[in-house]
Amino acid sequence: MNALPRSARALIALFALGWTLLLAAADRDYGLSPVRIADDTWALVGRSEDFSLSNGGNIVNTAFIVTRDGVVVIDSGPSRVYGEQLKRAIARITDKPVSLVLNTHHHPDHFLGNQAFAPETLAALPATIKGIHSEGGSFNENMYRLAGDWMAGTEPVAPTRQLAAGPLAMGDHRLELIALDGHTEADLVILDRSTGVLFAGDLVFNGRTPTTPHADLPRWQAALDRLEKTPFTTLVPGHGPVAGDAGPIRQTRAWLAWLDRQLRQAAEDGLDMTEVLALPLPAEFRGLAVVNAEYRRSVGQLYPAYEQRALSGERRKP
To answer: Is the dihedral of CA 245, 249, 252, 257 positive or negative?
Structure first.
């Protein structure tokens, strides 16, 4: 019998690898345990860590609201496996179907669970959908590298339903969609006026250092000003514990303000990136989770623009 053609052997090997990854993922359990934070409302709080092979990317907060018209999910998590386990966690609470999945922005831990949900339920702001289309593939590849088997079978799926700021009635819950930016080009915040719960996405971090790969710090600060003026009783940040006050908003603002001053002054003093990385962190921030790693990443992501402004003589208002 003739040997199989090389293309056939490659296809068989790829098929076998796919099954190996899927079987490995079947043994992965995120241990998702929804916590009731208000009437009809549950949150699932991720770890205050970096992405890793041990946590499978579960560093994000997701949530859901059970309404008469079905379940509203806020963010779908970092992988297909997470999304599927989130669906099962919801089913332990209610037999109502998932009617709407809101992606707050286009970072991978907030949308790579989309595959687990019906395509017609997925929704996001237009710029978020654009970001998933343009960067979702590279995000997904990077997550495979960081989280390994947990990512088995995961592919980026962008919502087709475009959202706009304004009221959204879901059964007996009166939601307000708030379109902001600063953490990314489009950051969706959801206020449930029926319960007072504010789902702030990654505009707000609690006890964890903010991430800045797509950040515009002045616009982010303006968004935080808007959020602090928004009446709420419970705050669900994108990362870190659920809170009952605006403390996480103020904490996030303080870090961003310090980071902006630090980078601006360093650029004006002519420091190179290695020297900026060696600068000490203020005592008030040393207790934040992942602070050293996120500071290093922020310097790499943001400092070149500060150097360019300093070289051109441009000054930003504090």
So the answer is: negative
The pLDDT assigned to 21 comes to 47
CA distance 73 to 68: 14
- DSSP string covering the chain: -PPPPHHHHHHHHHHHHHHHHHHHHHT-------EEEETTEEEE---SS---TTTTT--S-EEEEEETTEEEEE---SSHHHHHHHHHHHHHH--SPEEEEE--SSSHHHHTTGGGS-GGGEEE-HHHHHHHHHHHHHHHHHHHHHHGGGGTT-------EEP-SEEEEETTEEEEEEEE-SSSS-EEEEEETTTTEEEEEEEEESSBPPP-TT--HHHHHHHHHHHHTS--SEEEEEES--BSSSHHHHHHHHHHHHHHHHHHHHHHTT--HHHHHTSPPPGGGTTSBTHHHHHHHHHHHHHHHHHHHHHHT-----
Per cent of the chain over pLDDT 90 is: 89
Structure tokens given for 222: 């303006």
The model carries a pTM of 0.90
pLDDT at position 313: 79
